């Protein structure tokens, strides 16, 4: 059974839609920045069209990326770094819980209004339902983590330390840059949706170039771009 074409009924080509969505999510650009960049390439669309495209196709692309990575056994269960970052929505503080593995791969993003035991439990259960259980949970000294891990039965796998969680702290930076370009968020639902899509796209294009020679980096970057151009192509 063939899958329905998600691009059916759109006047613009799938290539242009994928390019617009990639530019907006991957780089710290505004909707109007993307509109101007596409204009330079001879593509005349409105910034509202870019907004509609990323909302319509962003989750679809992210879901396919996650599916391919899980099928390719790219998700690590060795050491996970957990951390929460402050995000303001209409001036009110919320918390974006994030989990990354030892290579900086973003495993999960989850938005809550509080950072208590209930929120930590919900985040951990969602994380482990999708990725299983790791050998080690690296966290900061927030007590909610310890209580939640104890209830799940993996308290003996928790590690805390002054610099042990730098991997998670550094992984916040790309999202922070993106948040500033978007002038923050107005709804929890919008934040959850964008954080989920952004993490998948970041994983896809994150090549950790400092670990490779220039030649290998170019090959990996080209492979990632080629794979992106085939998303949702059937």
Automatic annotation (TrEMBL):
GO terms for molecular function: DNA binding. Transmembrane segments: none annotated. The keyword DNA-binding applies. Residues 78-207 form the DDE domain. Signal peptide: none annotated. One of its GO terms (biological process) is transposition. It holds the Pfam family DDE_Tnp_IS240. SUPFAM superfamilies: Ribonuclease H-like. PANTHER family: BLL1675 PROTEIN. Involved in the transposition of the insertion sequence. NCBIfam families: transpos_IS6 (NF033587). This is IS6 family transposase. It comes from Sulfitobacter sediminilitoris. The lineage of its organism: Bacteria, Pseudomonadati, Pseudomonadota, Alphaproteobacteria, Rhodobacterales.
């Amino acid at each position: 059974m063939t899958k329905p074409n998600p691009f059916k009924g759109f006047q613009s080509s799938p290539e242009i839609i994928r390019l617009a969505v990639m530019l907006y999510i991957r780089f710290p650009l505004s909707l109007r920045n993307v509109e101007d960049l596409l204009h330079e390439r001879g593509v005349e669309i409105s910034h509202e069209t870019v907004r509609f495209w990323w909302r319509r196709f962003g989750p679809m692309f992210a879901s396919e990326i996650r599916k391919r990575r899980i099928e390719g056994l790219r998700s690590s269960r060795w050491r996970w770094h957990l951390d929460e970052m402050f995000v303001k929505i209409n001036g009110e503080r919320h918390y974006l819980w994030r989990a990354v593995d030892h290579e900086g791969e973003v495993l999960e993003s989850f938005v809550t209004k509080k950072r208590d035991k209930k929120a930590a439990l919900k985040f951990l259960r969602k994380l482990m339902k999708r990725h299983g259980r790791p050998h080690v949970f690296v966290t900061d000294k927030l007590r909610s983590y310890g209580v939640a891990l104890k209830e799940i039965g993996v308290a003996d796998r928790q590690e805390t330390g002054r610099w042990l969680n730098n991997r998670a702290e550094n992984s916040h930076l790309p999202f922070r840059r993106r948040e500033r370009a978007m002038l923050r968020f107005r709804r929890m639902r919008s934040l959850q949706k964008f954080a989920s899509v952004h993490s998948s796209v970041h994983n896809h294009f994150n090549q950790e170039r400092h670990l490779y020679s220039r030649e290998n980096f170019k090959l990996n970057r080209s492979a990632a771009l080629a794979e992106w151009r085939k998303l949702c192509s059937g």
